[in-house]
Amino acid sequence: MSRFRFVGIVLVLVPFLFTCQAKSASPMPQLQLTRAQWEKKVAQAPDLTAVIAMLSGDHPQIRQALTKLKDNAGKLGLKKDKDVREFLLNRAEVLWQMYADYPTAQQSFRAGQRLEKRGYATEAHRQYLEATKKDPKSPEAWAAVGRTAYKSGKTDEAITAYQRALKLAPKRPGWHLELGDCYYNQDKSAQAKAEFQQAVKLKPDFAKAYERLATVNWRQKNYKEALDNVALCRKHGGEPNIQLVNLIRQKLGLPPEKAKPKPGEHVLTPGTGKPAAQGQNPPGQAEPPASLRRPDKAPAPSQP
Asked: Where are the beta strands (DSSP E) in the chain?
């Protein structure tokens, strides 16, 4: 191949490659626009209907979603026109990432990560599902589907996804912990306990898993075993919930422990709003706090 012919091919390919890169960088229409340019166009639009048409392009689902958001702007506390326009622009960016049809599983997965990082679990869930369709053998994608399904209240789907992930990569203690949280949320104590036990088997210094075992053993009335779990949690750097600890100790006829509040933090008696003696629990408490009966937070990010 001659030198001049090679240079000619490069000159043809380079613009094409840059175009492909730009298309994969953002699913928003009119990709050459920066955020500042979008803000200017949105501000200059004659009305909100024009803003929606501009932001949704020819995507009917995005147009429908933005229209619904516009109609409910007042309920969301958005009174000023400029605030509604900014809100629609922000949501459009999220929706385009949510509905984008990326060519590879990795791109779909990364889009899901970006959305989840911004707090959009439901939107991220869709991209993680797309990643599993393009690469059904990706354990990370299945675990992400499980995590976002759990955050969205879809516990059955989360369990199925975690099972798929662990079938592909069984030695992931964090995923066993998260699957155990799903079972615990459905009052399936035996299955939850099995997952927490597998987590500490794979990672013997997994403090959080020992605390989970203490909680499920408390529910199963295995108080001595629960107290042993508390000790192992602390041995490995964890600090279990003091109310859980004292509920276990109460059942074993042991005196309550004192809470260790952070500097400047008050320990309050539940239901009174008044400072309580350190380590005090409500008299006659027969059930653990709600946060222990039902995990009020989604599973933590997976651990290796």
From this structure: none
User: How far apart, in whole angstroms, are the C-alpha atoms of residue 83 and residue 88?
Assistant: 9
No. of H helices and E strands in the chain? 15, 0
Name the maximum alpha-carbon separation found in the chain.
90
CA-CA distance, 267 to 269, in Å (whole number)? Answer: 7
Give the Å distances, CA to CA, from 18 to 2, 10, 36, 105, 215: 25, 12, 21, 21, 54
Give pLDDT, residue 263. 57
Q: Which residues contact 227 (CB under 8 A, 6 or more apart)?
A: 214, 248, 249, 252
Domain ranges across the chain: 27-99, 206-261+272-304
- CA dist 165 and 96 (Å) reads 27
- Tell me how far apart the alpha carbons of residues 21 and 159 are, in angstroms, rounded to a whole number: 36
Name the packing angle between helices 81-99 and 48-56 (round to 10°).
20
Lowest mean pLDDT segment, chosen from 6-20, 34-48, 124-138:
6-20
The whole-angstrom separation of Cα 142 and Cα 130 is 10
CB atoms within 10 A of CB 172: 24
Q: What is the pLDDT of residues 189-246, one digit of tens each?
A: 999 999 999 999 999 999 999 999 999 999 999 999 999 999 999 999 999 999 999 9
Confidence class for position 288, pLDDT limits 50, 70, 90: very low
- In this predicted structure, what is the pLDDT of residue 90? 84
How far apart CA 30 and CA 40 sit, in angstroms, is 14
Cβ proximity of 194 and 209 under 8 Å: no
